[in-house]
Structure formats: C-alpha cells, structure tokens
Amino acid sequence: MAFRGYSPWFKINSTFSLKSLTAQVRAYARPSRSRAVVNPSRPAPPAREVWVDPFKAPPPPKANFRVLLRPALFTAVVLILADPIADAFVERRTKNPATKAERQAETSNTILPIIGINVAIFGLWRVAPSFCHRIGALLIPYAPSPTQLIVSTFSHQDILHLLFNQIVLYSFGSIICDTLGREHFLSFYLQAACVSSLASVAASQAFVRMGFFDVSRLRVGTLGASGSLMAIVGTSTVIYPEMPVGFMFIPFVSFPLKYIMVGLVAFDVTGIAARWQTFDHAAHVSLLFHGLR
Is residue 123 part of a domain? Predict the structure, then answer.
C-alpha cells in the first residue's frame, strides 16, 4: 500500500551493502518535504456516518433521475398486475372462511409469516451483512434496483425499529387483512412497498437537485416497513375513522384514528420542511395518501 508523499520503491545499488540498505530504508520511511503538514492543534471535522452499499459504484457528483427508470417501471408493473393476480387466486379458492374463527386463523397465517420474514432479515444483518446487501435489503438512492424496492421494506437493523413496526403490522395489518382478504391484502402490501421505496429514492434525488441536501444524501440508505405500514394506517382510517387507538406507553388513553392520521401527516410534512433525516418522511407521506386512495 503506497501513501502519497512516500516512495514505494527501494533503489538498491548493484554493490549491495548493509549500510546502503539501511540508508534506503530510512529514506523510505521519511516523508517527503513536499507533503502538507496537518496542524495537530486544529480538530478535524467529524466524519458523517453514512451507509454505503459496497457492491455498487460510487454515487454520481449530481442527482440523476435516470436511475429511477427501472424502479418506476417495476412499480408500474406491480401496481397494474397485483390486483388482477389477487383476483385470479380468489377465484381459485375452493373454500372461503365462513366463521370469525376461520377468518382470524387465515389472517394470522398471513400476518405472522410477514413478521417472520422481517425477523429473519434482522438476524441476517447480524451474521451475513454482505448477503443482505446483495439481496437488496438496503435501499440506495443513487443506485436503486427493483429488488431493493421490496426487500428493503422487510429489513430492519435496530431492535426497537423492528419491534415497533411488527406491533403496528400485527395490530392494523390484521384489521385490513380481515377486511380485504388474504390475497388482496398481500397485493396491497407489495404495492405499498414499491410505492414507498420509489417515493423515497425519488425524493432524495429531487432534494439533492433542488439543493435541499448535498450529494452525500444519495449515499444514505433506507430500510424498514414503515412506508407499507403507513399505507395500512391510511386504509384503516378510511374504513374505521372513529376506531380508538391507544399508545403502549400511555395506558388508559386513546384517540380516534382519524386524529392520529392528521398528526402523522403533520409530523411528516414538518419533517420534510425542516429537513429532518432520522425518518424517511417522503415515503411516509406518499404511503398515507396511497392508503387513502
């Protein structure tokens, strides 16, 4: 490994001697006079922590909307075909759940495998992070792929993020799955995953183009099921606007779901305007309205 300011080669004379070799080693280890000297009294600026996919090329020096072409086409195909495919599977059913217990069993058999996939990918991040990158478990704004649009929405790296999202998925997802049916719930969930991921990378590209963020924004990856869950919450609000919703850490207090949704929209719109980067507010807002459609 050669560093700037150092000569990577020894110049050994034809007449070898220990004295000459020692002098050459000392010259090799001594920095050149032309190398800039860093002032030790001046603290270096803190490095910004970013997630970078090691299997993709470095980001371009400016926003490039052409990288959105394949994800946009893939999302359009999913939006067009998901519902007809769900209808075809419904027609192939040989038995429909007739009782409440049967509907609850079908709902659990639909929601719990989704939770299992989320938990499995969370575990993979601990034992095989390179494999997670390869399967698209991290959505990269400067190089999004169709697999990233879906797999990243089943991916979590933080235990609290995973736990909270799975509680919301089981609570609201069970309601919507019981209302729409298994096939249409799965099609709706995949549509929401694609729309949220596409909105996320499109917003990052647009914000960099408009100067809201610098180009390093394109290297910050996103993951999590929050986008799809926002679509489920939006749909729940349309169907059951007066449904009381409580909070885990505030017992005996509940609010109608329609007011919760207004608060979520206000929070995410404020996050976009204030340039908060902790959450993917653009994906959240897009999926709330996707659920309201």
Answer: yes
Which whole number is the average pLDDT over 257-277? 73
C-alpha 144/C-alpha 136 separation (Å) is 9
The answer to the question of residue 53 being in a domain is no
Contact indicator for 156, 221 with CB cutoff of 8 Å = no
Find out whether 199 and 139 touch, Cβ atoms under 8 Å.
Answer: no
Domain range for 110 is: 69-86+99-292
pTM comes to: 0.72
* CATH (domain of 112): 1.20.1540
Q: pLDDT tens digit string along 172-229?
A: 899 999 988 899 999 999 999 998 888 888 888 888 887 777 777 777 788 888 878 8
**Which of these, 232, 206, 207, 218, lies nearest to 284 by C-alpha position?**
232
Classify residue 109: in a domain, yes or no.
yes
